[in-house]
Amino acid sequence: MAQKARFDAPLKLRSGTELPGFELAYEAYGELNAARSNAVLVCHALNASHHVAGTYAGREDEVGWWDNLVGPGKPLDTRRFFVVGVNNLGGCHGSTGPMSPNPATGKPWGGDFPVVTVEDWVESQARLADRLGIERFAAVMGGSLGAMQALQWTLSYPERIRHSLVIAATARLSAQNIAFNEVARQAITTDPDFNGGHYYDKGVVPVRGLRIARMIGHITYLSDEAMMGKFGRQLRRAALGFDFDIDFEVESYLRYQGDKFSSYFDANTYLRITKALDYFDPAADFDGDLSAAVARAKAAFLVVSFKSDWRFAPARSRELVKALLDARKIVSYLEIDAPGGHDAFLMDDARYFGALRAYFGNIEL
Amino acid sequence: MTSSEQALLAARPDFAAVARWVSQRARVLDLGCGDGALLRYLWEAREAPGYGVEIDDAEVVACVRNDINVLQLDLESGLSLFRDGSFDTVILSETLQTIRRIEQLMREMLRVGREAIVSFPNFGHWSARMQVLLGRMPVSEELPYEWYNTPNVHLCTTTDFEDLCRKLGILIRERVALHQGRQISFLPNLLGSIAVYRCAMV
Hints:
The complex is a heterodimer.
Chain A: E1 3-7, E2 11-12, E3 18-19, E4 22-29, E5 39-43, E6 70-71, E7 76-77, E8 82-86, H1 118-132, E9 139-143, H2 145-156, E10 163-167, H3 175-189, H4 207-221, H5 224-231, H6 249-264, H7 267-279, H8 290-293, E11 300-306, H9 314-326, E12 331-336, H10 350-361
Parallel strand pairs in A: 5-8, 5-9, 6-7, 9-10, 10-11, 11-12
Antiparallel strand pairs in A: 1-4, 2-3, 4-8
Chain B: H1 3-11, H2 14-20, E1 28-31, H3 37-46, E2 50-54, H4 57-65, E3 69-72, E4 87-93, H5 102-112, E5 113-121, H6 126-133, H7 158-167, E6 170-179, E7 182-184, H8 188-191, E8 194-201
Parallel strand pairs in B: 1-2, 1-4, 2-3, 4-5
Antiparallel strand pairs in B: 5-8, 6-7, 6-8
């Protein structure tokens, strides 16, 4: 069941801006043990939320985004661990974000909501951990952008993380990654309905931009092989139309994904999330030396990449593993030969889930 | 020694030889570590913290289950993830014969480690020689594969291996030949079915 935690002390953001108090939507599964040693934080990526596992009464179709992994008897077993999912600050699933009222004006923040970063998310999550009485997490875990938080936690709060599971990650975006994000942002900000982010009170939504942003993003989440396997060159109609309507199944799929996404996700949140991705670079303060940047971590790491992931390819994960080895950290690394592309981190794979189950099983409480 | 350790040593007699040359609390890298049994043994016998490198999916998951630090990497692409001299001992235990680029790997082992321990099935053992003499590729306990399904690409004798070390400027500090768990000191290249070497750069 989703809950909310309100924090009244201002939060100084990495940008220098101060957020005057905020709310976080979160969900928790299992029980915090008496020693408070069994808490696991699950961080979400781009479009997910605090709803990590299970369903709500009466809304059985809204299954948590990592329900195949998290739950009773699952690899992250909620009979043993107390699992917390949080909607990131700046999100659109219940935590304070661009849709929330700006206390200075009483109207939605809209385009005035500050740009938040991975570091800021960790700061806000640390306050939630304090509130829940979790001094030290048994583990923090995430995939993609969630993995960046799992890594940042070990750097912001080395004493508070025993294990960090960094899945389908990169320690910094490449120029190509940033370029894809910029195309997505351009799609949104050039939509005539965007209005500089102040579209809520105008009764419009930059749907066209958000659709295209999602379509581009979606292509980068899948591998060529997975798309070919799923759609091939299959036609949607009896023969080629020689017009600009949908010919191929893959076009129909992308439009469907774009429509679905733009019906529930907020464009202002999307913009900010892409910036959080672009800005993440813990090595930046160390002249680009990632080994020096991770030196302060005290956690043991499990790094997992997927061979078909070209968005954050295995080479990016190996850079992180190398840095962790240089810094003499405890690390294991798996390179899973799964076909699913970047999204493989969300999919059940016997090797991947088997390793996660074994890893969590060995965490002492 | 626990009963599980005894069973392990019976199954892998080279483990004891390897462990003798690993000093207390040494940093160890085990290349081709399988399910991590040797690293587990070294941790228990020597308190030596280690990393394993393994390519096989099932073995890697087994390492995680055995609470061994494992890195799923292809040895053929080198050891570029490891800094110079970052390990006390680098172990290549009964894996040499499956490696394609042996010269590169041997150099890399002694770049990242101060010492290397290499064990391999000795193709010079009399039973292998006899089988070849009788016109067949050898099949034995140490070399259980048929010629058509073997993962081994570079089989050698102890004399061959020592020649390679000389060529690469590698110093052999110690060597042991084993057969059925027992140390062989007489005619090791003829009577030893497993060879274990302790090497360093000259």
